[in-house]
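Example 3.2
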Amino acid sequence: MKEISNANLLFDAFEKSKKNSYWKASIQKYEYDIWKNIYLTQQALENGTYKQKDFVEFDINERGKPRHIKSIHISDRVVQRSLVDNVLTPRTAPHLIYDNGASQEGKGTDFTRKRLKEHLLRYYRKYKTNKGYVVLIDFKKYFQSIDHKKLLEAYRKVIPEDDLFELVKYLIEINTGDKGLGIGAQLSQNAGVFFPSVIDNYFKTVKGVKVYDAYMDDRCIVVRTKEEAIELLDEFRILAKEYNLVVNEKKTQIIKLEKGFTFLKMRYLLTDSGKVVIHQKADTFTRERKRLKKFKNNNMSAQRATECYRAWRGTVKRYKNNYRRIKDMDKLFENLYPGTDYLSIKEKEKRR
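Structure, written as tokens:
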């Protein structure tokens, strides 16, 4: 248990947990008596008396998709952060395929998008064509479907220590029923990435699929023929069923490569000349327009709105084909919050 209960490790876990949430009263209250709170957590972990506080549960609607969130208290976030950072991540990471970009340091959506672009370029260099088939796979109600027993079997292989394993077991089984994890908790994120790693390794290693990109519950596979695409999808369904995961048939599809496809909210097109064209979906800008207007209607401060808009703008600005749409968004923001400074330092220098 000392792998996670060291005072310095718990303090570091708190510093990471409070990021972007320091404005919350619960976090400020915890920090007021930081060393006392860390000592109590440390003693509870080492004595085997640690108990997680009740979940704070609520529903959100994310891009039209309802999600049930189980939030945990800051003291429990500290425990999970220390557990994940110091035990679970170092031990599960070697079992993940390189092209899984979710919830890993130095990776993320940008990493996965760049890898997919690189894979498409390699595909063209190898076959000299943009003909082929894309298999897009999505799990249905992914986090709600994760089987506790099978997840614990997977974790047991990388956690031989009984005390650490019992803590992981407790944190998983505190979620009611025999399956399902709350979205948002640090352990849930680690489990979400690690759980289907056996499936990913089968296709990458055993089947030798070159273009296979993964991000949480989304998969993108590119192969030469439709027959191969159908065969791989059928195998994927069989393997998923072994882990009690259900493929979302409404979102899972086989598409001709030359027609273009959407993955992680981006539109990809491999042209017949071998160029990869990436477009951001139009609804990305539609959602941002609605969000900015909502900020204004809810009387959000100009400073906070500027921070949010600057962060969003920095993301979409990476794609050159967004230039005109960003200009339109800038005009809207300037109308809503006149006189605000939303430009990056580099853009300011260019405009001087």
